User: Fold this.
Amino acid sequence: MKSKPADTAMPTALAHEPAKAQALAELQLRDASVRVTQARVSVMAALLSARSAVSHQDIQDQLVDMDRVTLYRALDCLTEAGLAHKIASDDRIFRYNAGAGAEHHDHGAHQHAHGHPQHQHGHFKCTRCARVFCLDGSGEAGFLESVLPSSGKRQTTAAQLQTALQKSLGKGFQSHEIELTIKGWCADCAD
Assistant:
C-alpha cells in the first residue's frame, strides 16, 4: 500500500519517521488486543503522525491506495478500541486523532454507557483553517487540569468538572459527557 508523505501542515516527530510511526501503531494495536491489519496500522500511523485532528478525507489523501470503505472501517475499529477518538465539529465534518488509549492509556477518560472509553478533554478549533487540536496535555498536566481548581486530592478531570458543576448548579446534577471547544486562530493562522 503506497502512501504519500504526511502533510507538512500537520507534522509531529513521528511524521518524519514513518517506519517508527508504523511500528508504534502496530504495538498499540497489539496492546489493545485489536487484530493487526495493514489498513489499521497505516491509519493508526497516520493519526500518530498528525499534529492536529484529521478528517477522513485528509487520511484518504495521504493513503491514496486505500479505498474509502476500508478507511471508514479502520477508523471505526480504532475509535471503538479507544486508540483514536472522533471529534464532531460544527462544520459537520468528523475529525480523528490518536486517542487517550494511544498515548495516555485511560488518563482523562471514563467509560461511556456502551463500555467504551469516553475521552474527557477539550479541543481547540482554528476558525480560519478548521484544524482541531486536542487539549489533552502531552506535558505534565493537561489543559483542563491546569485551569481547574484543585481540591487538594488527586481527582480525574471528569471528577474535577463534576465537582465544579455541582458547585455551580447545585447537588443532583450529574454529567455523563463533556465537550469543550475553544475557538480561535492557531499559531499558523494568527501570523
In short: Residues 18-31 form the longest helix (14 residues). The radius of gyration is 17 Å. The chain has eight helices and eight strands.
